[in-house]
């Protein structure tokens, strides 16, 4: 696992955006898996800036969703489809047809989960999947004790996750749905490159358990240890509980063959 410690969220966003830009330069129709929430915003802002400056042509890139709320009405501003369109697809100047996501309003949600896994495979698989991490170590909405072989499926959100997400619903937890569709850990691990960004002291324990702890379902993100190309980018605050922080700083600084990630 590559662990890169950066000064702050802006530096992390720039580093990951350049890795995504480099991928798109090599493979113009790359399928980029995106995450929602506040953590990845610096990535999207930096990538959009590169597109606007002509540093990368993303016109053929494709975007896919990590997860989606179940039961929000079509067009709800906090559905993850709406968020991704607003924060990623539109700023990159992409057509909505380039965007793939699970149908959280489907009559048969389970069938929608199976269909999304199939669609990702038929699209050639995800080239780079962005991930955030919850304070309890969840990725996507794979909460603690999720199967490490799980596929895209319906999950019930924990109370803590609903509390964490209430800020996107005017602070009202009653508006936060109880269920989501999420790519399972097994599905996530099929992406060719996994890139997790974590910032802030509140993520420090989860980062330490993910990187240095045992692989265990109680910390779903620890499954990244099983992936052949997983990169964890953390700011100094999120790295504060890593026992090997100095080693990671030294390793990254002294590996000149790395271009980006």
UniProtKB/TrEMBL annotation:
Single GO MF annotation: identical protein binding
Keyword Hydrolase on entry: yes
Biological processes, Gene Ontology terms: carbohydrate metabolic process; glucosamine catabolic process; N-acetylglucosamine catabolic process; N-acetylneuraminate catabolic process
Site (Part of the allosteric site): 146, 153, 155-156
GO cellular component assignments: cytoplasm
UniProt keyword annotations, A-Z: Allosteric enzyme, Carbohydrate metabolism, Hydrolase
Catalytic reactions of this protein: alpha-D-glucosamine 6-phosphate + H2O = beta-D-fructose 6-phosphate + NH4(+)
EC code: 3.5.99.6
Pfam family, one: Glucosamine_iso
Active site: 67, 136, 138, 143
InterPro entries per record: Glc/Gal-6P_isomerase, Glucosamine6P_isomerase, Glucosamine6P_isomerase_CS, NagB/RpiA_transferase-like
Regulation of protein activity: Allosterically activated by N-acetylglucosamine 6-phosphate (GlcNAc6P).
Glucosamine/galactosamine-6-phosphate isomerase domain boundaries: 11-226
Pathway note: Amino-sugar metabolism; N-acetylneuraminate degradation; D-fructose 6-phosphate from N-acetylneuraminate: step 5/5
NCBIfam families named among the record's database cross-references: nagB, PRK00443.1-4
Family: Belongs to the glucosamine/galactosamine-6-phosphate isomerase family. NagB subfamily.
Function: Catalyzes the reversible isomerization-deamination of glucosamine 6-phosphate (GlcN6P) to form fructose 6-phosphate (Fru6P) and ammonium ion.
UniProt cross-references to HAMAP family, sorted A to Z: GlcN6P_deamin
Name recorded for this polypeptide: Glucosamine-6-phosphate deaminase
Species of the source: Streptomyces venezuelae
Gene: nagB
